Structures are given as C-alpha cells and as structure tokens.
Amino acid sequence: NAGVTQTPKFQVLKTGQSMTLQCAQDMNHEYMSWYRQDPGMGLRLIHYSVGAGITDQGEVPNGYNVSRSTTEDFPLRLLSAAPSQTSVYFCASSLGGSFYNEQFFGPGTRLTVL
Amino acid sequence: GENVEQHPSTLSVQEGDSAVIKCTYSDSASNYFPWYKQELGKRPQLIIDIRSNVGEKKDQRIAVTLNKTAKHFSLHITETQPEDSAVYFCAAKRNNDMRFGAGTRLTVKP
After folding, report:
1. What is the CA radius of gyration of chain A?
2. Touching check for A55 and chain B: CB below 8 Å?
3. Which end of chain A is more exposed for a tag (fewer CB within 10 A), N or C?
C-alpha cells in the first residue's frame, strides 16, 4: 500500500492564483481530512469528509473548498491564494472519523504564496 | 469549539532522563486523545493514544495519563534516547473534529 499520498510536494503561487492540492489514499478509509501547519500553532483542521459525497468544515475553512467524489481522493482547492495561506498542508485518513482510529498523514505540501 | 493547550513549548533533557509533556482541553465531550511525534521535515506519526474511559496507557517507554475531571492529559517518556528528539503534539477529538496543541520541541542531549 502507498498509504496517503499528496501532490505536489512544493508549490509557489502568486496572490490571487488558484490551485488544487491533491490527496489520495489506498487503504479504503472512510474519513479524510486536511490540516494546515504553521510555526508555533500545531495543526489546524481545514475540512474533513466522512465518506464520498460528504464534507464539512473544520476550524479554519475560509478560502478553501473541498469535494469527495470517490473514497480514494480528497482534493483541496485554494480559490484565490493569499500570503496568509503560506503553510504546510497535510492530508490525513482513518477508518472512521467518529471512532478511535489512528489517523495516517500524508507527506505534506509546502505552499508559499507571494 | 475545543481548545487544547500544551506545555512546555520546548524541553531539553539528558539522555536517560524522563520527559513529561502536559496538555489541557476545554470540551468535556472530547473522548479521544492521541499523541503524535513529528521529526524535522516529516509527517506526524501516532505514538500512543488514550480513550476517555481509560485513565492510563503504557507502551514500552511511553505512557499517557488522562484526568477527565481536570481535563488534562500527559505524555511520559522514560529512559529518553537521542532518537526521541522531535516535536510532540497532543490532540483532543470530539466526533469528527480533532484539535491539536501547539507542540513541544523535545531535545535529548547525549
């Protein structure tokens, strides 16, 4: 199993540009989520999904969109990038969100917005 | 929403000593408390977790304790080794919402 994969690993955007961060898992996990990690602030939940077709907002959803058309994929879209969105983004998955299941993280995407 | 506070932000110990990291949470409905280790440039990885109906859990040199009444939980690492050096994050989960502490940078000096 590849586990949780993310692309790209690095990305530089200009203010106002849009892009999609890709996330995929091959473990048949129902629950997938996106976090951003900023220095001194730990990880903050952006959006999550408990299954195909179901998404919900986390702690810091503004400026981001998600969709979940398949169990495997959970892309994160930045609609109009801002310097405040410079961060490291992690995707994670687990068997079920409401249960005590280990979350597996992807390798991360380092995004810089100029 | 849930608020998780983690202390200390940095911790330096000598090899072989013990290290303790403490977290408090605000939402009494949180029922799952994992701890993650993150090495520089790597992804977070689960090292131990505890459910709200358990007071203590141990796995070799690592243990976690939970006090639901006081709403705090702690990570204990005994006989620390240089490879324990990393950033450690606590988290508290309610339903589908996981909130993380700000992290503790642990340095184990040989």
Report:
1. 13
2. no
3. N
